[in-house]
């Protein structure tokens, strides 16, 4: 299971101000902490950018690349922002992402085909709604895979996100179970080894961080690993969550444990 940092995003007021002022220091500082955490990929979410989007995107990507050689994940619903970012990446990034929403099929999926990158596909309805149950998730997965194939995307370029919702929703616990089941069933359903990703932070979205919330995140991350999850997008500065991910991956892949890598 590959652990991806979701720490560089526009919701972080320090990062937002740094982008606005083209100030590299806060971004460099955070990037070095992310690298030290053991993350393998860094997700960059600049949010909706202004008329100087290309300049801002170049600044953000170049600043992060200056501090680390890690692969990037470009996270935006705006195809122009994504295309601007693709031009500045030294390594092929992951595009995050598209869904069955028509404008994303028309504008974002072709970018992945053109640039031959991996791309995240969200299991959302064409009108951007979260699926109600497992059957709907699986139906959306079939439709998403068909659209990707028709566009010319290779199966190993597609990364499916079954869409985790906050546990605080009325059906949050059931949705969390459905996500686990969906991950297990996707390879049989689609007929090829399916790459998967989950935004772990969604599980506790809207709830103030405390010991119980952090424990829930760690327990569910272990359950995701057991279900066969390929990538987890999370706050990598939460050391116990990172240690949980590392230990799950080491045990599942029969790797020799490095106690130095377990930082709690």
- Biggest pleated sheet: 8 strands, parallel, barrel
* Unreliable parts: none
**Separation of termini?**
19 Å
Strand-pairing-aware structural class: alpha/beta
CATH architecture: Alpha-Beta Barrel
CATH topology: TIM Barrel
Task: Give the count of structural domains.
Answer: 1
Report mean pLDDT, rounded to a whole number: 93
- Rg: 18 Å
Global shape: globular
Order of helices and strands: EHHEHEHEHHEHEHEHEH
DSSP strand tally: 8
CATH class: Alpha Beta
- Percent strand: 15-25%
Please describe what this structure looks like:
It is built from 10 helices and 8 strands. The model has no long low-confidence stretch (mean pLDDT 93). Helix 1 packs across helix 2 and helix 7 crosses helix 8. It is globular, with a radius of gyration of 18 Å. By secondary structure, it is an alpha/beta fold. It starts with a strand and ends in a 12-residue tail after the last helix. The chain has a single domain, classed as Dihydropteroate synthase-like (TIM Barrel). It has an 8-stranded parallel β-barrel with strand order 1-2-3-4-5-6-7-8, surrounded by 5 helices.
